[in-house]
Amino acid sequence: MREQIITGDAPTPAGAYSQAIAAGPLLCTAGVGGHDPRTGTLAGSTVEQQTAQAMRNLRSVLAAAGLSLGDVVKVTVHLADLPRDFAAYDAAYQQFVEPPYPARTTVGSTLGPGMLVEIDALAVRPEA
Fold first, then answer.
1. Three-state secondary structure readout of the chain
2. Packing angle between helix 47-64 and helix 82-94, nearest 10 degrees?
3. Taking the mean position of all CA atoms in its chain, how far away is CA 102?
4. Are 26 and 125 in contact (CB under 8 A)?
5. Pairing between β-strand 103-108 and β-strand 72-79 as defined by DSSP bridges
6. If I label 16, which of 2, 10, 55, 61 is the partner at 20 to 30 A Cα–Cα?
7. Is pLDDT at 72 greater than 80 in this prediction?
8. How many angstroms separate the CA atoms of 35 and 61, rounded?
9. What does the pLDDT look like over 25-66, one tens digit per residue?
10. Which residues on adjacent β-strands are paired with residue 123?
11. What CA–CA distance (Å, rounded) separates 48 from 21?
12. What contacts 18, CB < 8 A, 6 or more positions away?
């Protein structure tokens, strides 16, 4: 059985997808970028600013399911310019996670206009 997770504290999906789906013990989130959920605009022009907003958006989606960033076991990150932005992205990301860090894959990708980062996560629901 799948349960859709929706919150107004993260950007509204721009297509045919859910912010997150819970299924059994797992919660899978859609990719979130650095958009402010209230204005829909990107929260800055640097990868640090956009990463911080993306992590706040991810945290909001997790909270809507009763979870936290501490429940995340796997993260996939897309950077518009991997060689240029990896170190700055990683420094901003580390402000939101604690050891043991989730497993993570970081790749270079073509993202929407102005987007520098997009992050999705897989979390484990302890009660499921």
1. CEEEECCCCCCCCCCCCCCEEEECCEEEECCEECECCCCCCECCCCHHHHHHHHHHHHHHHHHHCCCCHHHEEEEEEEECCHHHHHHHHHHHHHCCCCCCCCEEEEEECCCCCCCCEEEEEEEECCCC
2. 50
3. 13
4. yes
5. parallel
6. 55
7. yes
8. 14
9. 999 999 999 999 999 999 999 999 999 999 999 999 999 999
10. 27, 72
11. 27
12. 4, 5, 6, 30
Confidence band (pLDDT; 50, 70, 90) for 128?
low
User: 2-124 adopts what CATH topology?
Assistant: 60s Ribosomal Protein L30; Chain: A; (3.30.1330)
Question: Token pair for residue 37?
Answer: 């959920």
Residue 25 neighbours by CB distance under 10 Å: 11
Reading the block at residue 10, the tokens are 């993260």
Rounded-to-integer distance, Cα 22 and Cα 2, Å: 6
pLDDT band at 87 (very low <50, low <70, confident <90, very high): very high
Q: Name the residue ranges covered by the structural domains of the chain.
A: 2-124
